[in-house]
Amino acid sequence: MRFGCFISPLHPPGEDPNLLLRRDIAFAELADDLNFDEFWVGEHHSAGWGTITSPELFIAAAAERTRRIVFATGVMTLPYHHPFMAAERAMQLDQLTRGRFILGVGAGSVVSDMHMLGISVADTRRMTAQSLEVILPLLRGEVVSATEDWFELHDARLQLRSFTASGVEVAVASALSPFGMRLAGTQGISPLSYVAPPWGAPRAGHGLALDRLAEQWRHYEEAAASAGRTADRADWRLLLPVHVSTSREQALEELYEGWLYQREHLWVRTMGMPMATSGVGARKAFEYTVDAGGIIAGSPADCVAAIHRLQESSEGFGCLLLSLMDWAAPEQVHRSLDLFARHVAPVFRHSAVGTTASNTWAAAHKDTFQQANSRARDAAVRETTAVRAD
Q1: Which domain, by its residues, includes 321?
Q2: What is the DSSP letter of 176?
Q3: Is residue 103 part of a domain?
Q4: Which residue from 79, 147, 91 is spatially nearest to 116, judged by alpha carbons?
Q5: Where does the Luciferase-like domain lie (predicted)?
Q6: What is the pLDDT of residue 204?
Q7: How many of the other CB atoms lie within 10 Å of CB of 56?
C-alpha cells in the first residue's frame, strides 16, 4: 500500500497567510523525510479558509525542497481553467519535478468560487468532462481541435513532452455522486474517493460515504469495462483524516476542539450547511464519524486496525491519503505523521519484515546461543587458568 498526505488546506481566517503557506511547505518537506509517497495540494479562491489559490505554484516551490515525494494537485478545478493552459502547466510541472507530478482534477465544491467566476454549479460536471476530453490527448502528445461553449482549440499541441515514458498520471476526485468514478473509468485514469465528510455525520438517512465505497468502485469498474478497460484497485486512492497519538482518548482530545471550530465556523457559518450546532449534537457527530471509520484516530495499533477495516469495507485499494485538516496543533500533527511513518505504514508496506523476522529468530534460539556463549566463556577461563599455572 502507498501512503500520502493531502492538504486543502483549510486554515482558520485571521492567521498570517504567509506563515501558513510556509508551514504547509514545511509539512511537504516533513512528509518527504518520513518516506510518504505522495503530497496533494488543493485549490480555493474564496471563503478565507483555503489559502492556496494555485497548487501548481505551491508544488513548484515545494518540489525544490524535497527529494523523492510525488506531488499532485488535489484538485485542479477544471471548469476554472482553459484546458490547454491546464495541460501546459501540468506538463511543465512534470518536467520541473522530473516526473514527480500527478494531475489531480475535479469539478469543484466551493460555490462562492463559481459565483465569482460566473460559472453555474449545474455546469461544472459537464465542463470537467469536456476539459478532460482534450487534456488527456494533449498530454499524450496529440494534436487537438475542439469547440465548446466555453473554450476553443485549433490544432493545439503541447511543446513539452513527459519526463518519463509512462507519461503524466491523471486522477479524478469523487465524493458522494458517481460522476467522478464513472468519468475516471471511462477515460482510463485513476479515481480518488473522499471516504467521509470532514464535518462529521451528515443529515439523517444519508450515511457516510464510507458505507458506499464498494458501490463507488463498482461504478468505476462498470465504466472501465464499457470502455474496454480493466479496472485495477492499485490505482484507487482513498482520502480521510488520520491522526496518531499515544491512545485513542489522547488523539480525540487533540482533534476535537479544532474539528468543532472548523465545523461551526466553516461548514455552518460560512458554507451554510444544515447540521446540529449544539455541543451535545456536535460531539455525537464527531464520535459517530470516528466510530464509523470516517476519521481514523488513536494509537498506532488503533490506526492499523482501522485501516484493516477500511480495506475490508472497500474491498481493496492502492493508496491511503491522510487528510491534514488543521484540527490539531502543528506540533501534534508533526508527531502524528512521525508515529504513522514509523509504526503504521511499515505494517502495510512490509518494510520491517526483515528486522522483525531476525528478532523472532534470535529470540527463538536465545537458549542455544547463550549455552554456546557460556561454553566458550568457560573454555576461555580454563585456558587462562592453565597458562597462569604454567
Answers
A1: 2-356
A2: S
A3: yes
A4: 79
A5: 1-313
A6: 43
A7: 21
* Cell of residue 15, nine digits: 492567521
Q: Are 177 and 157 in contact (CB under 8 A)?
A: no
Q: Has residue 363 been placed in a domain?
A: no
212 pLDDT band, cuts 50/70/90, is confident
What's the grid cell of residue 285?
457527530
Q: Are 219 and 303 spatial neighbours (Cβ–Cβ below 8 Å)?
A: no
* Beta strands 190-194 and 237-244, pairing class: parallel
Distances (CA, A) of 355 to 86, 304, 341, 360, 385: 46, 19, 16, 9, 40
Following DSSP, what letter does each residue of 278-326 receive, concatenated?
A: SHHHHHHHHHHHHHHTSSEEESHHHHHHHHHHHHHHHT--SEEEEE--S
CATH number, position 324: 3.20.20.30
* Residue 221 located in a structural domain: yes
Q: Is residue 390 part of a domain?
A: no
User: Among residues 350, 260, 246, which one has the least CA distance to residue 297?
Assistant: 246
Domain count for the chain:
1
The pLDDT of 10-30, averaged and rounded, is 97
H helix or E strand, kind and range, residue 76 = strand 76-77
Name the burial class of residue 220, with classes exposed (0-12), middle (13-18) and buried (19+) by CB atoms within 10 angstroms of its CB.
buried
Distance CA 139, CA 41 (A): 21
- For residue 169, which of 336, 37, 311 has the smallest C-alpha distance? 37
Taking residues 329-337, report their average pLDDT: 98
Amino acid at 194: Y
